[in-house]
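Wait, mind explaining this?

_____
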Amino acid sequence: MPASLRQLGLRDLAALSPEEFRQLFRDSSVKRIKHNRFIRNVCVAMGNVGTEGDLPILRSLARHPDPLIAEHAQWAESEIENRSLSPEARMK
């Protein structure tokens, strides 16, 4: 794994442009899934382990023109927001 990739967090990966994605993964099999599915997968990871600090990038991606990305960003945003609620508020 290239050193530059090891230093990237989920927020960094979520913000990759299609060109940055191609450049970063040019020598990797990851490029086969294409940019939109990669960003979708990053959104899923953020939904599973993300924090409130990830909400700005997810809110931006929720307005993405690709419905696959937008839908998963919205899901991730909801997951993070639900985790930040108290147990009592989650039950309502």
Summary: The first helix runs from residue 3 to 6. Residues 3-91 form a domain with the Leucine-rich Repeat Variant fold (CATH 1.25.10). The chain has seven helices and no strands.
